[in-house]
Design brief:
84% helix; 5 helices; 145 residues; rod-shaped; mainly alpha
């Protein structure tokens, strides 16, 4: 009889401990899923950016718009510094596409536009080396925020 009383008295705290343990495990699982989902979205932006930079010589208005759509949510995924950097890439890509289009549809060859195109292409080449460093804190699984 005493055993049943002791067991009854311990049952509620044991159930509370088990429930707490299950809740903590769910919290950890949900947090890991959130980190994974965030990593996937960030990686998608990284891949789109890397492709855009590598194919800078072939940028047209359609590709520039596709890049805009791929990186449009960046302000929700990254700190302001990286979001601004992605916006700079987009702006330079749009400018390059516009200049190429203007030269292609013009019978006049403007040296100023050609020089600007070359400068933007050089800028894109320099970004190939910088890009992984810019994204490192967001894609390194050891320090993922």
């Amino acid at each position: 009889m005493k055993f049943i009383q002791i067991f009854s008295a311990l049952l509620t705290p044991v159930i509370a401990l088990i429930t707490t343990y299950i809740a903590f495990q769910q919290y950890r699982t949900n947090r890991a899923k959130l980190r994974h989902d965030l990593y996937e979205k960030r990686m998608s932006v990284y891949k789109a950016t890397s492709s855009f930079i590598l194919l800078a010589d072939y940028i047209d208005l359609k590709k520039a718009w596709e890049f805009h759509e791929a990186t449009d949510e960046s302000s929700f995924l990254f700190h302001e510094e990286l979001s601004t950097y992605l916006k700079d890439i987009e702006d330079k890509g749009m400018r390059l596409a516009f200049l190429k289009h203007a030269i292609a549809n013009s019978k006049l060859h403007d040296d100023k536009q050609a020089t600007e195109i070359q400068e933007i292409r050089e800028w894109f080449k320099n970004q190939q080396e910088l890009l992984p460093k810019k994204f490192m804190e967001y894609l390194n699984l050891k320090i993922l925020k």
